[in-house]
Amino acid sequence: MANWAVDVPVLDEELQKAQWSKPCIYKLPAAMTTSAGTSHNNDNMKKSAAYLPHTVSFGPYHHGKNDHLKKMDPHKRRVLGYFLRRYSVTLRTLTDSLVSTSGLRQQVDRLEALPVLQRLMDSYESLDDKWLHDHDGFLQLMIFDGCFMLEILQWLLVSDSDKAAPAVSAFTGSVDECYYADNDPIFSRHGKLYLLSYIRRDMLMLENQLPILLLKTLLNAVLPTKPKVV
């Protein structure tokens, strides 16, 4: 028998099932996203604008790729401050929730025993080496982007065009004392009219998604007295 036959792997059905059950956020095939007439083998090929975020990036696929997306990074940092103050938690509370297995539902699936951060990394079909070798950087990305998305969702759920900030928290049901300024570029009447529609559009991009596990874990970390989000 030829030597190459020795290298043919023996199929493990359970291993195969586990391998393909991890990813939930995929990169679109180049055949779908590249401009007409562009070679798929060209490393510098351009994706059609229809498949790219225009205002804000969520997750690793488009993070820091364009200057116009980087403009949202300072807003993500300040929003994290509002998020921590609103729920009276520390940044350590959020990081601990993502690097441990505590607080997760006990299930037969062995994937549930993995740290949350590893499961978040596994959620992406194709991570760049930058993220695979920089767990701290990936953790930071998940916290900034996750809290920013939760704030956007909160704003969309309970705000109206005449308020500068939600009067009632969508997640706690209590009065929200952490108001944004009336002239806030995002969380204001102006922001809702002229910016939030573009942010919502970017949130629908397939390559611009966050794992639902991230949002659930962050909410469970800041709402310990409320029923767990499952």
UniProtKB/TrEMBL annotation:
InterPro entries per record: DUF247_pln
Superkingdom as given in the UniProt entry: Eukaryota
Pfam family, one: DUF247
PANTHER family from the UniProt entry: OS12G0481000 PROTEIN (PTHR31549:SF80), PROTEIN, PUTATIVE (DUF247)-RELATED-RELATED (PTHR31549)
Protein's name in the database: Uncharacterized protein
Source taxonomy: Eukaryota, Viridiplantae, Streptophyta, Embryophyta, Tracheophyta
